[in-house]
Write a structure and sequence with these properties.
Order of helices and strands: HHEHHEEHHHHHHEEHH
Strand order of the largest sheet: 1-3-2
Radius of gyration: 20 Å
Number of helices: 12
Structural class: mainly alpha
Strand content: 5-15%
Length: 277
């Protein structure tokens, strides 16, 4: 992806953040990471804490997280194998409450309260749309931009009108806005509020401390006033279904999932954001 007009290093930065989102977004991955946050566990112990997973679903997820360098498999003996977070996996946990704080601030309030995990999962669904991170990056850097100008950066080798489907999806999700057909696109208030989220993801993916996210060259000004008033949008059912009642005794729950320090909450006069999945 070309990065003409964006700060130096944006290409690699966007790629790292997109890769990070791809690691943690697959269904149940956030719950696995939080389950391992209290320390290494045997496979059966993890399975007992996630009784809604069908037989055979947990192992490939643990293997994928291990391949990503977030989880480590330790074989103590042939009969004693545990899974735990690597140092990188442990460093990723404080990013999750940043995402949850954004969801609580900007996503709609459903009829039934959602857990912090569901806030994170719903947010990740929006941020992993095709080309979402790159489009949001361009609009944050340039302010108002035409669809053609966004396409030159995000998909320089393709026909520029191919940018419309992802742009319209982000508009439907409430992350970008436009005054109408042929008018430039810009971030909505909820899109502007993603500064701390992308700053934290960028810092973690680059191996820096999360505090450095506030100095991000693109997303560092998270509290800047939004350029557009948010619009109302249709509510959808939550993406994550209620887990089925376990058929075997379950071990104690996750406890305080987000015991890590939460960042200062973003202030906004009107709620906005993408549709609940």
């Amino acid at each position: 992806m070309a990065t003409t007009g964006l700060p130096p290093g944006s290409d690699a930065d966007i790629a790292r953040v997109t890769e990070t989102l791809g690691m943690i977004t697959p269904r149940w991955n956030v719950r696995i990471l939080l389950t391992l946050g209290s320390g290494p566990l045997r496979y059966t112990e993890i399975s007992d804490k996630m009784p809604w997973l069908l037989s055979g679903q947990l192992h490939p997820k643990l293997r994928a997280l291990s391949d990503a360098g977030i989880v480590v498999r330790t074989e103590h003996t042939s009969r004693h194998v545990t899974y735990g977070l690597t140092d990188r996996g442990t460093a990723l946990l404080p990013v999750l409450p940043v995402i949850a704080a954004w969801a609580e601030e900007f996503l709609e309030k459903p009829d039934e309260p959602l857990s912090a995990i569901e806030h994170v999962e719903d947010s990740l669904t929006l941020l992993t749309r095709r080309h979402a991170a790159a489009i949001l990056w361009v609009l944050k850097s340039r302010g108002e931009s035409s669809a053609r100008a966004v396409a030159r950066v995000v998909m320089p080798d393709g026909y520029w009108t191919n940018i419309y489907p992802p742009l319209r999806q982000l508009a439907e999700d409430g992350l970008v806005a436009s005054a109408g057909p042929g008018q430039p696109y810009r971030l909505s208030s909820s899109g502007e509020g993603l500064g701390r989220v992308f700053g934290a993801l960028s810092a973690w993916s680059a191996g820096r401390t999360l505090d450095s996210g506030s100095q991000h060259p693109v997303w560092g000004n998270a509290d800047r006033a939004s350029r557009t008033a948010p619009k109302h949008w249709t509510s959808h059912r939550p993406r994550i279904p209620q887990p089925a009642v376990p058929t075997r005794p379950a071990r104690p729950g996750y406890g305080n999932l987000f015991s890590h320090a939460n960042p200062a909450r973003m202030q906004t006069a009107v709620r906005a954001g993408g549709a609940r999945r």
